[in-house]
Description:
mainly alpha; Rossmann fold; four-stranded parallel β-sheet
Amino acid sequence: MPGSPAVPDPDSASASVSTDDVRAVVERWNPAGGALLRPAADAGQQPEAVVGEYDSVTLIGPDDPNTTLLRTELSRFEPRVAFTDPVTDPANLPDVIGGGPAVVLVLLDPGAAAGAGLIDPVARLQASGNRILFAMNGVHAHPQWRATLQHDAAMLAHALGAEPEIVPVSARLAVAARGSGDAALLDRSGLAALHAHLSVAIGNHGPDRLAGATARILADTRDRVMGQIEALRSGTAVTRLRAERTTALAGRDGGRAQALAALRNRLQLARVDLTHEVGARIRTLNATARTDLERLDRRAVREYPEQLQQLVNEATGELDGFVGRRLVELTRQIEAVTGPAPGSQPGPGSSPGRPADPPPRVGADPDGRPRGVEDRLMIALGASAGFGLGRLIVAPLSLVPALDIASVPITLALGAGVALWVVRARGHLADRAHLRQWVTDALVNVKAQLEQRVATALVEAESDLTDRVVRASTARMVETDQRVAELEKQLRRAAAEQPAQLAACERDLAILDAAAGS
């Protein structure tokens, strides 16, 4: 790569990297490389017979894309570590490893705790003199991986008799770091640390490999130092801090204006929806009342006001439930914009301690229908019709002189009966018409009370939600002011410390160049 130092010979490289200054620089800029450099330098001082003891690492884990990606990313590190094919069933390990000791890498699942089917064979392998290393692969996809790691560590410590070191790794983060050139993200991926552990375990430090590994570590560290020098000279960090401060100042009101505008908009929509719901329920009540009135007899007419009040009570309960759900949804929509305010309570309409208002009353029972000229006219018309009908019925009797006198009381009785029926029927119809008019007037009054009930709920909700918006925005305003003050402090510190940081980077770069050229 451009700017990389020349590869030193093994003896000079080993001597150079053993100095305290070079090690300090490497460990400061490249912790994973420093972890590999220390045992590499120590191994370089040992006889040839004790290095390179293991040819490959036996891999225990699922044979899936995540394992394949992990092996691919580890193969990019120097010195190269060879792996066997993944052993998916730990019970087959004795056949795979054979009789001699081996280095075994056990991949743990961050989404599920390790069971006895894995822990018991691993314990037997360690008892047989094998070197066991553990890695938890794919931690980026499991937020709860730390709890799983602690559980697995406790189970393995009980089985192995010692606390195991489990390296959390994420090959996906390593891919992202390689694509963006982010060295810090590569360190977070854990692959460099795992590679260092594997290299130490297999004794992968022969003279040729030692020289290549040392040169690679020094070159990687030098690239990191150069990147920091370029960032300091270009003022990238200062520019980023200024842009972040500008963004923070733009939102200094804590989103209050946006939240209040959203609140007004949502309240208007809720008012339209609830007003329409009130009208729909009143229309339903009116249609139900008309149907009931058509089936009422004379006795039921007097009892219908109480029945109508019961219908109004049921409709009010259903409307209250609808209003409560609508206001809870309104609160959720506003909190999606503002976030929950500190110390916020349950949404409007859902608070269990809020007393419910009594349902609207339909009013006093209808007054008795006054008897007027129409009733007297119905008596006359009924009597007339009855007498005519009676004369028609007894007309055959008039042909017999002996029965002619008997036809008179029959005619009078039929006339009186028909007159009574007509009067009662007409009175029943008039009573139902009178009750129908009373129901119409009563439902108009009920509708007005329900609309007032909805308006009261909306006003209370508006007051509560406005308070939530103000409290949430005020909290964010305080956070924004603190963040702006912190950014200004960082800007002043960056401006003051930039020359010293640049000088320190140049000193570290000079040490690395001297180590690479020695």
